[in-house]
Amino acid sequence: MVKRIDESSKRPAMAVDSGHVPPPGVVGPRVAVVFLQPQCNMHCTFCITEDNFNAITFEQATNLLDALKGGGTVRSVVLGGGEPFDWPHDVMALGRYGRSLGLLMQVGTNGIALPEGFEHLDAFDRYVLPLESVDPGPHNAMRLYRGRHHSIIMDRLESLRTVRGSVTISTVITQRNVEHVVDVGRFLGEYVQRGGNVHAWHLYQFLPIGRGGALNEIDLAIPEYLYQSTCEQAESLGLPFRLYRRSDMYHSRTVEFFWVERGRVRWGGEAREPAATLTVHGR
After folding, report:
1. Which of 1, 36, 44, 271 has the fewest CB atoms nearer than 10 Å to its CB?
2. Could you tell me if 248 and 204 are in contact, meaning their C-beta atoms sit under 8 angstroms apart?
3. 102 close to 70: Cβ distance less than 8 angstroms
């Protein structure tokens, strides 16, 4: 049976502003999300990303991973953005570095710029890919990339299936795809039966913020009851992997967010609230 997990409970941002990396135990959550940059190679109608942060440098990123490992509680790191594979530095090398520290390295990507044969590479333990509907129409209407992003995701999923590569699926529930969400669940169930390795499925409620969401609230927003009832229908499928309700993707008890503003690494339990500043030293 699918295990329902609601990770949207509010948790205060850490009120730490130190001139050094945090000592062991300061970083409490199990998962760290690192926003590498705001830039992206596609346009999504629901995008919540703002343009008010900077790209992290490779040295800042590796030093941050050192700090997270030293904190003792973070087990997994998700590299996000923007699009990680458009980051001006070597995202594959960063993934390998994190793995060398013993961290479980994930990358949240739209899949467009993945290198050929990515499923055989050793940089990441898991890929986080989007799927808004099994029908290409609603998916491509939400994720704008030459009218063919849906086919790219299907190709990436098939490549991962051939090697039983671990994947987490994210779906943003909006007016455009709310009637298609259960079909996504059925597809994922069949994908697992065919040998696919789905770690989890995250169901996000649309938020009217960011460079896409703020402009498209009227066309995309759904009421809370509809989001919850859609999640309940998905849960009733009894899928063989975890399903997470994410009614606010920026609030989580188990996730810490990291990004760079004005050359300083910022961090907080809630990415939209006042955050602490973390100084990470070069080696």
Report:
1. 1
2. no
3. no
Check residue 269 and give its pLDDT.
Answer: 57
Cα angle: 171, vertex 138, 163; to 5 degrees: 50
Beta strands in 163-223 (DSSP E): 166-173, 197-205
CA distance 39 to 79: 14
The letter for the amino acid at 135 is: D
Q: What angle do CA 156, 202, 41 make, to 5 degrees?
A: 45
Q: Over the Cα atoms of the chain, what is R_g?
A: 18
Angle CA 279–86–187, to nearest 5: 110
Greatest Cα pair distance, the chain, in angstroms, is: 52
Task: Please work out, in degrees rounded to the nearest 5, the angle formed at the alpha carbon of residue 269 by the alpha carbons of 113 and 51.
Answer: 45
Report the run of H or E that residue 184 belongs to, with start and end. Answer: helix 181-193
Give dist(CA 64, CA 271) in Å, integer: 17
Residue 246's identity, in one-letter code, is R
Does 1 or 131 have the greater pLDDT score?
131
How many H-runs (helices) and E-runs (strands) does the chain carry? 8, 13
Provide mean pLDDT across the span 43-68: 96
Q: Classify residue 277 by burial, with Cβ atoms within 10 Å: 0-12, 13-18, 19+.
A: middle
- Asked if omega into 82 is within 30° of 0 (cis), the reply is yes
Residue 242 to residue 248: CA distance in whole angstroms: 18
Q: How far apart are CA 72 and CA 6, in angstroms?
A: 24
pLDDT at 105 (0 to 100):
98
Domains delineated in the chain:
4-278 (3.20.20.70)
Neighbours of 155 (CB within 10 A): 12
Tokens of 11: 């948790």
Is the sign of the CA dihedral 12, 97, 102, 248 positive or negative?
Answer: positive
